[in-house]
Amino acid sequence: MQYNRLSLYFQRSILCFVPFLITGFMGGEIILKSSDGSKIKFKSENVYCTTGSEYPDFLNTYGGGLIRNVNCTANGVRTFLTGDRTNFSETKLCKVINSQGEKVNNSVANSNQNTFACLAASKFNKIK
Q1: Which of 27, 62, 110, 112 could cross-link to 104 by cystine, CB 3.0-4.6 Å?
Q2: Distance (Å, rounded) from C-alpha 8 to C-alpha 6?
Q3: Tell me: the pLDDT tens digits for 70-95?
Q4: Is residue 68 domain-resident?
Q5: Would residue 1 count as lying in a domain?
Q6: How far apart are CA 114 and CA 34, in angstroms?
Q7: How far apart are the C-alpha atoms of 38 and 14, rounded to whole Å?
Q8: Considering the domain boundaries, does residue 14 fall inside one?
Q9: Confidence of residue 9 (pLDDT cuts 50, 70, 90)
């Protein structure tokens, strides 16, 4: 009798922690602070990066050959200091790669590294 109660209690306690385990290890979320005091919450499934088509390096800036842009998009919820919430979405050029997949030094991509889209993509390891 005592064993059955203990077993039932143990089963119920495990069931209470399953939602926490699932949300804790699946995807995750991050919160980034803005300069105006607002906070933007991003979930892993709402941040993605796409690699564009190859195009020639016409100006021979990166040693010639073909290069590709890696653009990242981050969608989240922005919460202002007043408690108001609004949708947030941003797409930025986060990296430029050559045909071998190596990162090339690009001033636009380098200046975008501290944008919300690039920071969220880098935190979730979405930039390939």
Answers
A1: 62
A2: 5
A3: 999 999 999 999 999 999 999 999 99
A4: yes
A5: no
A6: 11
A7: 37
A8: no
A9: low
